[in-house]
Amino acid sequence: MPDSTTIGTPAAALQPSKPAAPYTPAPGSHHPVAVVGGGQAGLSVSYCLRERGIGHVVLESHRIGHEWRTRRWDTFCLVTPNWQCRLPGHPYRGDDPDGFMVRDEIVRYLEEYAARFQPPVAEGVTVTRLRHGAHGPYELRTTAGEFTADQVVVATGPYHRPAVPRLAERLPAAVHQLHSSEYRNPHDLPEGAVLVVGTGQSGCQIAEDLHLAGREVHLAVGSAPRVARAYRGRDCVAWLDAMGHYEKTVDSFPDSDAVRMRANHYVTGRDGGRDIDLRAFARDGMRLYGRLTGVDGSSLAFADDLAEHLDHADAVAESIKDSIDAHIDAFGIDAPTEPRYTPVWQPAPPGTPASPHTALDLGSAGISTVVWATGFTRDHRWIEVPVFDGRGYPMHRRGITSRPGLYFIGLPWQHTWGSGRFEAVGRDAAFLAGHIDASRRVADVCGALTGAPTALSAALPVG
Ligand SMILES: Cc1cc2nc3c(=O)[nH]c(=O)nc-3n(C[C@H](O)[C@H](O)[C@H](O)COP(=O)(O)OP(=O)(O)OC[C@H]3O[C@@H](n4cnc5c(N)ncnc54)[C@H](O)[C@@H]3O)c2cc1C
Question: Where does this protein have coiled-coil stretches (predicted)?
């Protein structure tokens, strides 16, 4: 275990000297808290538990920072500015707060965090089953043996399995296919044109990466919205922060479920940050299509909705500018004015006979590769505790489930916009650590009165 003298020491006072020391929990050992997952969410919880002096273990399948290290492309960088990286006790301290860390810097940022406070992370340990009987502690079966814990925090991230539509099975065998999480760089792909399916953040950025490398790119455009990088002299993220957008809680929306499921706005932090304008890509030679609807041999069919999707993305970006204008007016802020966006390219209108945006023949277009930027699905099947809804989404309020002692962290919009991001995962971690601490204290008091602390710790919810 890490030296107990570090408990409660602000991380800022600790030196990033050596990497986090390897930690191996004794097989069969019991822990007050088990944290599953050693990404930014698991590390943040660990930091907050440490500050409260609560014993715990972090079980991580691979290595700290695994997702950033292995599932992002070579030119990947954050879309959120560095100043939003504010893990508990470890705010971004570099010299480019308004910039966007690249992949290797993000990994380093997490490694430094772990080096500073030496969390009890057991790397290379996968939790394969989590159970909880009516009485007694949680039981964790892992690749390093069985453990028990009074309380468990699931910090395994929201993006578990690549979601590839089954249409993919119908593509000709000669076409190379990969998911966005497997894409690294243009040079790794076979020669020829590339079709990217999906225009969430990954799809747009990968399409741009290929386009900038001179590859011929075809892009199936979905319904994701976009946001301008900057407006009236500031990054839009800075404006939205000043406007209190990131303080809005999910339950302040009429349909919190819909908020949690909606696609992120596309924009990029590449080369210091800029807009992603798919119309500009098209003007410069990228071929755009609507949503992919069918595959028949090498013939692909797309919905006639490209114009609708481009208009929608622009309308959202402009409506964000409207709210920034309103904020500037309301507070009498001295900000430069800026002309609004004018579309730089128009697709053929919907319904145009033989629309170039609804059909594509892979062979004639020389397409050798399809990149599926179609997102991820959750996989919590290893959790054998009945806390899920019909879609397999964990039912919770601010990460607290109906089963006392079981928590989630790092889910998109778990509490606010920043819950699934660097921006606010630390706030959620502090909240959960406070709740875990309170539950523990109540259980201790009741245990002292009844002599049955463990069973009570599982039975007494503290809100
Ligand atoms: C393409 C992309 C771009 C993003 N860009 C940004 C951005 O610009 N800014 C931003 O703030 N956020 C961004 N995010 C969102 C978010 O910051 C990341 O998804 C981040 O990785 C989430 O951190 P996490 O700790 O919650 O989960 P993860 O990083 O996914 O970590 C979970 C960890 O749990 C481990 N694990 C999983 N299952 C088990 C198990 N059963 N047993 C033990 N260990 C297990 C995994 O190995 C992993 O290390 C982006 C996400 C993606 C996918």
Answer: none
Q: Determine the angle formed by the axes of helices 40-51 and 425-450, rounding to 10 degrees.
A: 50
| Domain 4-160+378-459, CATH number (from 3.30.460.10, 3.50.50.60, 3.10.560.10, 3.20.20.210) | 3.50.50.60
Q: How far is the CA of 353 from the centre of ligand 1 (A)?
A: 44
Q: What are the tens digits of pLDDT across the range 140-154?
A: 999 999 999 999 999
* pLDDT above 90 for 9: no
Predicted TM-score (pTM) of the model is 0.92
Provide the residue type at 431 as one letter: F
Distance (Å) from CA 380 to ligand 1 centroid: 14
Q: What percent of the chain has pLDDT over 70?
A: 93
Distance from Cα 40 to the centre of ligand 1, integer Å: 7
Residue with CA closest to ligand 1 atom 7: 78
Closest ligand 1 atom to the C-alpha of 157?
27
Looking at CATH, the fold of the domain delimited by 165-372 is given as FAD/NAD(P)-binding domain (3.50.50)
Strand 121-123 versus strand 145-154 pairing type: unpaired
